[in-house]
Amino acid sequence: MQYLTLISVLIAIIGLAFAATGIKRLIQRQFIKAAGLQFSGLFFLVLASSTFLLASNLYTYQRLVYEQAVAEISFQQVSKQRYRATINALDSSFQQSVELNGDEWQLDAQVLTWRGVANLLGLDSNYRLHRISGRYVDITEEQVQPRSVYSLVKPLAYIEDDNFDLWQFAHEYQS
User: Fold this and answer.
1) Of 56, 63, 78, 141, whose CB count within 10 A is highest?
2) What secondary structure letter does DSSP report for 146?
3) DSSP string spanning 59-117?
4) Model pTM?
5) Cα(98)–Cα(103) distance, rounded to whole angstroms?
6) Looking at the structure, do residues 85 and 10 belong to the same domain, yes or no?
């Protein structure tokens, strides 16, 4: 995924070059050329920003290798049908402790599987631990007892408003 960041930097450099040339043409009073270069520069800078945001979102995923353990989870019983679970993701330094209600637990992951041109470009399947939840064996208890669900997705520290989710976008617009 680091190559996407490199690509976004290269696109930004191209955008800045167009913008600088546009300013030079503006100083030379070549207004039409200046406007065209400025719009081109703006286009490349927006494209660079979009590529960077895509790369940033992809960094929240880990490479998926077949038959690979993704996390170690340990449990301590707190009370009847209540457990403290400690999740250690194996591919990162991520660790989280939560309290789960129920007799069983479920770990959900989001998986990105690439097709077509993306496969040809060498993009591997990736996963991200999504959430952990407690479950009850008895259906009646499952319907009545309190649920416990916790997100395992780490927000990106350098993006304040991280509303774009690549998995949700791919899931919604898959072909």
Assistant:
1) 56
2) P
3) TTSEE--TT---EEEEEEEEETTEEEEEEEETTSS-EEEEEEESSEEEEEEEEE---TH
4) 0.57
5) 15
6) no
Pair 108, 43 in one domain: no
Q: Name, in order, each residue with C-beta under 8 angstroms of 109's C-beta and a sequence gap of 6 or more.
A: 70, 127, 128, 129, 130
Domain that holds residue 139: 62-172
DSSP state of 134: E
How many structural domains compose the chain? 2
- pLDDT digit of tens for each residue in the chain (175 aa)? 577 788 899 999 999 999 999 999 999 999 999 999 999 999 999 999 988 888 877 776 766 666 678 889 999 999 999 999 999 888 777 788 999 999 999 999 888 777 766 665 667 777 888 899 999 999 999 999 998 999 888 765 444 555 666 666 666 766 4
Judge if 75 and 155 occupy the same domain.
yes
Which residue in this structure is represented by tokens 């703006």? Answer: 42
- The C-alpha atoms of residue 31 and residue 25 are separated, in whole angstroms, by 7
